[in-house]
Amino acid sequence: xxxxxxxxxxxxxxxxxxxxxxxxxxxxxxxxxxxxxxxxxxxxxxxxxxxxxxxxxxxxxxxxxxxxxxxxxxxxxxxxxxxxxxxxxxxxxxxxxxxxxxxxx
Length: 105
Fold this sequence. Notes:
Layout: H1 3-35, H2 42-49, H3 52-67, H4 71-103
C-alpha cells in the first residue's frame, strides 16, 4: 500500500473523530441546558444518545487506524471507521431535525 493511500485513510479517520467531537459538544450542550433548569423530556434524551452507538465504534476504529502500520489491518479498519462515522452523522442530523420538528407549532 502506498504512503498516500495510508495518509488518505488516516485523514478519513480524522474526519470521523472530528464529527464525533462535534457530537460530544452537542451532548454537553444538552447537559448544560438541563443544569440551567431547562426540562428535557425523556424521549429527547433517547434521541440525543442514539448517535453515541455509532460514534463510539467509529472513534475506536479511527484510533486503531492511526496506531497501526499493518496494511491488512488498515484495509479492515478503514471501511468500518467510515461506515460507523457516517451512520453516526446521519443519526445526529436526523435526531436534530426530528427534535426541531417536534418543537415547532
